[in-house]
Design a protein that fits this description.
Elements: E1 3-7, H1 12-27, H2 41-53, E2 65-70, E3 74-88, E4 91-103, H3 111-120, E5 126-129, H4 134-142, E6 146-147, E7 151-157, H5 163-172, H6 182-185, E8 189-191, E9 211-212, H7 216-224, E10 230-236, E11 242-253, E12 256-266, H8 273-283, E13 293-301, E14 312-314, E15 319-321
Parallel strand pairs: 4-5, 12-13
Antiparallel strand pairs: 1-2, 2-3, 3-4, 3-9, 5-15, 6-15, 7-13, 7-14, 8-10, 10-11, 11-12
Helix pairs in contact: 1-2
């Protein structure tokens, strides 16, 4: 069979054709675990606007993905890319997050062609993949991708889910850590508008760490895109000095609404900034936390414990590949990385 792989331009007509293909792929039962809206072309068009039009890191020449066409069947596959900017030691590392690798079942023999096209970009771009597919994760390991390591989750129930008593039980089970006192947050102020937040520049050894660019435009974009409800949260002290910030994304689990901190940064010298933020959110009815929230959950990557507590260990699907000259540098890994927050 003859195939052709071309770069996706993002032009309006090409988008409409792609949206119809992706929705049809789902309607035909070729996606194992579809999400709400996956069978609707309008939903895919909205997602494309999030990935490329609203994205402050997407430029005119940014790669957006590849189309797989068959000489008879026409469009049979797509591999998408979402641009991001990362930085280290004052340098920008252009990055592409993979999304939506769909190939018709009868044409799976051509999948490696799409992956080869993606890999050809790895000399210039960091490639991030958060695929939930076990087969894809095994392939990424063979291709030399780094695995971010498992995550540790820390749970902080709200009053409606047991409050302080439930937190004590979770602390006893090593699933949570103690929160600061109310007095420690009394003069702190909450911010829910990323436009009012000023990100401190990393200093010392942290400046050489690879991390996602988190300017106000990027934070505002992440806070307004994606199908799941979300809120930007930040806390500053009485003088307005930044303490911590997080993107809380709400997910229903067994009918219970949980606020997951998928993106986060802690600027407190004692590394308790996120705990101060959680304390403030749990204690302030006007904090902006959804009223039906049962718990706030913070995830941390790596083997290090938080305040000596191991947390609830969770397998991670995050993989990444760095261009040669960037390899070996330390890297910050966050749950928000990957495409799931932008679907």
């Amino acid at each position: 069979m003859a195939y052709e792989i071309t770069a996706f331009s993002g032009a309006e007509g090409e988008r409409r054709q792609l949206a119809e293909f992706l929705a049809g792929f789902v309607r035909d039962g070729e996606l194992a675990l579809p999400r709400p809206g996956d069978d609707d072309p309008a939903v895919w068009l909205l997602r494309m606007s999030w990935w490329w039009d609203d994205n402050p890191a997407c430029r005119k020449d940014s790669p957006r993905g590849f189309l797989l066409r068959h000489e008879v069947a026409g469009l049979v596959g797509f591999s998408g890319l979402i641009p991001f900017d990362y930085e280290s030691a004052g340098e920008t590392l252009p990055t592409l997050v993979t999304t939506t690798l769909f190939v018709r079942d009868r044409h799976r023999s051509a999948v490696m062609g799409l992956i080869a096209k993606q890999r050809s970009l790895a000399r210039e771009f960091q490639i991030i993949d958060g695929s939930p597919s076990p087969e894809m994760r095994r392939l990424l390991a063979k291709l030399g991708y780094e695995h971010a390591g498992d995550r540790a989750q820390y749970w902080f129930p709200t009053r409606r889910f047991g409050g302080a008593a439930a937190r004590l039980a979770l602390i006893a089970g090593d699933w949570s850590v103690p929160l600061p006192s109310t007095a420690e947050t009394a003069e702190c102020r909450l911010i829910t508008d990323p436009g009012q937040w000023s990100e401190p520049a990393p200093e010392g050894a942290e400046a050489a760490t690879i991390r996602r660019v988190s300017d106000s435009a990027t934070l505002a974009w992440l806070a307004r895109c994606g199908s799941e409800p979300r809120t930007f949260f930040a806390i500053v002290d009485a003088e307005g000095t930044p303490i911590a910030r997080a993107l809380g994304v709400y997910k229903k689990r067994a009918g219970v609404n949980v606020c997951l901190f998928l993106d986060q940064a802690d600027f407190h010298p004692g590394a308790i900034g996120l705990l101060l933020l959680v304390k403030k959110l749990l204690g302030d009815p006007a904090s902006g936390l959804a009223r039906d929230t049962a718990a706030i959950v913070i995830s941390r990557f790596g083997d290090r414990t938080w305040l000596g507590v191991p947390g609830r260990r969770v397998a991670s699907i995050l993989h990444y590949h760095l261009p040669a000259r960037w390899q070996g540098r330390p890297r910050v890994c966050l749950p928000v990385e990957g495409d799931l927050a932008l679907l």
